[in-house]
Design a protein that fits this description.
Elements lengths: L3 E7 L3 H13 L4 E5 L30 H11 L1 H6 L10 E3 L3 E6 L1 H18 L4 E3 L2 H7 L13 E6 L2 E3 L1 H13 L5 E5 L6 E5 L2 E6 L3 E10 L5 H7 L6 E8 L2 E4 L5 E3 L12 E4 L5 E5 L3 E2 L2 E3 L2 E2 L1 H7 L2 H9 L1 H14 L3 H14 L9 E2 L5 E8 L8 E5 L9 E8 L5 H16 L5 H8 L5
Parallel strand pairs: 1-2, 1-11, 2-8, 4-14, 11-23
Antiparallel strand pairs: 3-7, 4-6, 5-6, 9-10, 10-11, 12-17, 12-21, 13-16, 13-20, 14-15, 15-16, 18-19, 22-23
Helix pairs in contact: 1-6, 1-12, 2-12, 9-10, 10-11
The chain binds flavin-adenine dinucleotide (FAD).
The site of flavin-adenine dinucleotide has 42 residues, from helix 1, strand 21 and strand 23.
């Protein structure tokens, strides 16, 4: 006999668990099923060893327009609201870094930094400060000044930043959802969903050995695999998945907080930055951005890669100059031996000039995959997050979320938008007032 749930959620990263938490806590949903192929929540992209742990935006994302900066900030601010509320008690989710900045090296970058400071950063982050005095900068981060050539000019925007353990956040969402003993909330770990199907009054979800579940509404927050699940239901045909590996290098701990560098507008990845690791043991440099066959770290998936192959992929990478340049540079960084040397010379030393080559080590224990959606018609790379169907349709009771980067920061925002759609589709109550008490008034 098949269980029928109000809502089933595939994938227990930050996005899927946030959706489950908001549903359980702020609606009158009666039954909820989580399905996760790993043995606990937050093990893939949301794991803190995979991502850079930054709560975006903190002002260092000079590739964002002011509009994008503001929109992402509203949803990202839900994380401290949550972590500092009763829901976050007992979990080590969020810490403020000792320093945070975006660094400009050379005259051109300094001019651009100044422009961005006035146009984009200061209006959204009023406490941001422009600084160019090396002695003052050295008080915040001595190693970005030490060993730098006297004639090399630098400038920074001084900011504040939080680091987030998005894996811990996901596990806390799961726990808070499960506390509702008045509701049927089931969690199935070690359960890989193989296939989904549209049936009358909902969706059927198939797992190995002929098992299946049914749900009236389906949320697919399966990270890199969300798009291929959406395609099983005839959604997302206009998109192709573009998996991009992000690798890191480490050195002994020399950075107190976060030092971001420049990224061109329109490029959906942060440029190399140097970050104090969560436990302070090392400084992490990266992530790189290289096309890959993998959809999750260290797990090549040739079948998924072949299913997803599309001439648009290559055409987009080749025809978009900014993307092409980033990819070529990063492919060079991946070449064994030489790649490490190039990364040391052009990336790590730009931030920490005195770092010795021998101190910069590849760090295979960190890093992961950001799978970006490319719109096949417009060749647009989807930044941040997007959900299919893009426009809600009557009778299509599914949200398929893709959140390549920096999607973890927006997880509660994505979840909120999911829950608005779910409550409308299923005729459920949404406890707006209760939600407002925790998160403030949400954008309509
Ligand atoms: C190198 C790198 C750096 C990043 N830095 C940042 C950063 O600093 N700040 C930030 O906000 N974001 C950052 N991101 C992005 C962030 O990690 C993701 O946006 C976020 O974790 C996505 O959450 P998710 O829940 O969508 O995916 P995930 O956390 O990957 O969760 C998806 C879940 O679905 C499960 N799943 C997949 N397929 C199936 C199946 N068939 N059956 C059952 N379960 C399935 C997976 O096991 C997984 O648990 C970074 C990402 C990378 C790779």
């Amino acid at each position: 006999m098949t269980d029928v749930y109000d809502v089933a959620i595939i994938g227990m990263g930050a996005v899927g668990t946030a959706t489950g938490f908001l549903l359980a806590e702020f609606t009158n949903v009666q039954s909820l099923l989580f399905l996760e192929k790993e043995n606990s929540a937050g093990q893939i992209a949301s794991d803190r060893r995979t991502n850079s742990q930054t709560r975006h935006p903190f002002g260092g994302e000079l590739n964002y327009s002011p509009k994008v900066m503001k929109a992402i900030k509203r949803y990202s601010d839900m994380i401290p609201s949550y972590a500092n509320s009763e829901y976050g008690r007992g979990y080590d989710i969020l810490r403020r870094t000792k320093s945070a900045m975006v660094l400009a090296v050379g005259r051109n970058e300094k001019e651009y930094l100044e422009k961005k400071f006035h146009d984009t950063v200061k209006p959204v982050f009023p406490y941001a400060e422009l600084m160019e005095d090396k002695e003052e900068i050295a008080k915040l981060e001595p190693y970005i000044v030490r060993g730098r050539k006297k004639e090399e000019k630098i400038g920074i925007i001084k900011l504040q930043a939080d680091i987030v353990d998005f894996g811990e956040l996901a596990r806390s969402f799961e726990d808070n959802a499960r506390r509702h003993q008045d509701k049927k909330i089931h969690v199935r770990f070690n359960t890989r969903v193989e296939r989904i199907e549209d049936v009358s009054n909902g969706y059927k979800i198939y797992i190995p050995n002929s098992g299946s579940f049914s749900a009236r509404y389906l949320v697919v927050s399966a990270g890199s695999y969300s798009l291929s699940f959406a395609k099983q239901l005839g959604l997302g045909g206009d998109f192709v998945a573009f998996p991009v590996a992000g690798k890191f290098y480490t050195s002994p701990s020399v950075i107190n907080g976060k030092v971001y560098t420049f990224q061109e507008e329109g490029v959906p990845f942060a440029a190399t930055h140097a970050d104090r690791e969560w436990d302070g043991a090392v400084t992490r440099y990266g992530p790189t951005a290289t096309p890959t066959l993998m959809f999750e770290r260290n797990r090549p998936d040739i079948k998924e890669f072949i299913d997803n192959l599309d001439p648009v992929l290559l055409d987009t990478v080749i025809s978009k100059k900014a993307i092409r340049n980033i990819m070529i540079k990063n492919i060079a960084y991946s070449v064994p031996g030489m790649g490490r040397h190039l990364f040391w010379k052009y990336e790590a030393r730009k931030i920490v000039p005195s770092i010795a080559y021998a101190d910069l080590k590849p760090a295979p224990e960190f890093g992961g995959i950001r799978t970006v959606g490319i719109n096949k018609r417009t060749r647009e790379l989807k930044l941040g997050e997007f959900t299919l169907p893009e426009v809600p349709k009557d009778g299509v009771n599914i949200c398929a979320n893709m959140a390549p980067s920096p999607g973890a920061s927006g997880c509660l925002g994505i979840a909120y938008k999911n829950v608005v759609k779910i409550t409308r589709a299923l005729g459920l109550d949404f406890y707006d007032e209760k939600l407002t008490k925790v998160f403030g008034t949400m954008p309509s």
